[in-house]
Structures are given as structure tokens and as C-alpha cells.
Amino acid sequence: MFFERHEGGERAILVHLEGVDEQRREDPHEFIELVRSAGAENAGFLTITRHKPTPRFLIGPGKVQELRALVKASEGEVVIFNHTLTPSQERNLERELECRVLDRTGLILDIFAQRARTHEGKLQVELAQLDHLSTRLVRGWTHLERQKGGIGLRGPGETQLETDRRLLRVRIKQINKRLEKVRSQRDQARRARQRAEIPVVSLVGYTNAGKSTLFNALTTATVYAADQLFATLDPTLRRIELDDVGPVILADTVGFIRHLPHKLVEAFRATLEESSQADLLLHVIDAADEERESNMEQVLAVLGEIGALELPMLEVYNKIDLLDDFEPQIQRNEDGVAVRVWISAQKGLGLELLQQAIAERVGDEVVHAQIVLEHAEARLRAQFYAVGAVLSEQVGDDGRQQLNVRLQRSDFNRLLKREGWLPEQFLQQHTLQ
Q1: pTM higher than 0.70
Q2: Annotated binding residue at 346?
Q3: Does the pLDDT value for residue 316 go beyond 90?
Q4: Is 417 left (phi over 0), alpha (psi -120 to 50) or beta?
């Protein structure tokens, strides 16, 4: 029911409000891109300056008549507002304009419904759709009688609404139960990765910043990537190998957008947990976007909602091929830590620098050292071999074993503790000078 969509190409009239406060301001260019991503045809764009929205229509009665004339003249099939409408405003506008009316949340939900590919993604979209629809059920039954008092005067409308509401509650409960199972399965997979001590690096960023293109470039995968908003909806995980670190899990996630509906964040919490549980976040930024500073703030706001704001982050400025005379580079803070990398994922510029920066940031917990062992420490040597930490070995002139080892610091500390060594003390006495 909820995934049946028109073939696309619907003629849409776009309505954008100016004059609202800065916190609620929307970007008209982004609005046009959203409509394009939904597959609709822009048949007209109406900008309305209004400082105080009206409770009945959001816009004034005169603008409603102007909009009605525009719909008729352009043969519009749907009117889309770049703002959130209340159920009553949506219903009143549909009655006046005699066509479907959609607000910003409904538009984003429609795009999500088109993009969902996996069973989990479809469940999450349907949950958000049902929640959005539950407050708008009445508009589908306005042609029926309302319930009246007295025998024989009870109309069918209220009964139908009650039935629909009950069915919605049942379906929402079923979806939540299935998503809880998905969340449990994700937790199990995450715990398995933690036991194997494989770092997880998650791509986050504003929609259409180039996350999927970068993901494909780093993993040689074939994740769908396109110049449109919300091209990627379902999370994808791939394993890559980094020098001096070894295996790393790279996760591609759904893009963020300003004023992302809170219910969508709630519905996609199972997916977004891949970001909130990551060892490192790659914040992918469109370097050529004039709104990049504002977009970065919106991403940080969503990360705050899912509890991921405190995680280590590496900023990745993408699309430098669209800038004039800009070379790939790593920028570091005063402590020498890589904090920003400038690349072009589509052109393949700076990917080696990015891999180097990722390795530096997630490799802090890896011990890579040349150590010397006495003959009496053969048991410790065997333990290094048992965990696959020995990269090479040779015998010194004095007959002692010289091992080139690389392993997780937790494993390193555990091995030394069994032999009664403190890690710092061991490295001071056993590191090859």
C-alpha cells in the first residue's frame, strides 16, 4: 500500500515562504533538488513573503487564490510546500486548490520510499509514513457523514476512521517488533566486530556530498551513487585493508538534511546506530557548495540527536575538482593530528592521503614495534605467533630473536601481563635500537 508510487513526471507547483525566522528558514535551491529527486516536474515556483503564518492555510487567503489560479493555468497535479503543514492546513488547502497538497516532510518521505531497497529500509520508511499518516487520516473520509446522536443517524465515517486507526496501531506495533529484531541482529554483528577488534569507520554528511562515490572509490564496491538528494538510503558495510592497521569496516549511511523530520530520525535509529557506534566518523563535505558551513551545522545537529557528536571525527572536503587550483592535502591541528583532508572522490584525487589519515586516526591502538627476545622468553615468542602478530623474524649477531610485531594494544598488554611485564617497561628493555 505505502510503496505504490506514480511513475513520476507529475506536474508540481512549488511554494516557498520567505520572511520566516532564521531557525525555520529553508533553502529554495535545495527544495528544487528535493522535488527533482522525487521525480516530479517543476511546473511553477511561487515565492511568498510572510512573516506570520496563518493557522488556516499557512499563507494568506489572497495567495491561496493566486496559487489556485497558477494550478489551473499550469495544469498542476500536486502542490508542494517547502515547509511543514499541519493536518488541518493540508486539508484546507486541498479543498481550496482541488488537488493534492504535500509538505516538506511528505516530500522527503516519498523520496525515502522510492530509495528503500532492503527489507529493513522499507520497514523504516513505512513506519515513518504510518506515523505521518496517522494524524492525517480524517482527510480521506471527509465525504462521509460525521457521527450524530440518535438511532439511525450514525454515519459510517467515524466507524471507518476508528477501524483505520486500529489497523494503523497494529501495523506500527508489528513494524516496531521487526525493527527491534533487526536492531538486535545489528548489535550481535557489532559485538562480533568488537571482539575481533576491527575498527569501524562511518561515512556521514549532508545529502549529495559524495559519500557513496567516496565509498565506491575506497572499497571498489558498486553502491548506487547519483547527483540527487538521498541517493543512498540503506546502509552498506564493506571491509577494506589499510597499511599499518589491517582490516577496517567502512560504513556508508543515509545523508542528512536541514530540518530532517524528527520521526525520520527515530525510524532510522537502527540504521544510524552504525554511525553512533563507529570508532571514527568521516564527515564528508561538499567543498564547492556555497552552503557548506550551514550544511555542516545541520549534520552536527543530527549527530547530536543520535548521540554521536562526541566520537572522533575526520573532515573530508570532497569535490575539490570543482575548485580553482586546489591540490589534495592533509591539514593537521597543533598536535599534528590529521583533522581535515581535501580530495575528489569522483576524480580519484587524494584518496591515498585520506587512507593515510584514516590509518593514523584508527591506528592509535595498534602497537607496531621491533622487539628483541632472550632465549628464556621463547614462550612469549610463541604467544606473539599464536595471535598472528609476527610480521618477520631474524636472529641477531648475539643469537637473540628479533621480531617485527604488529597487534592491537589490548592484545599486546594482555600477553605481557601473563608474563608479568608492564607494557612500558617491556618496550624500554626489549625494543630494537
Answers
A1: no
A2: yes
A3: yes
A4: alpha
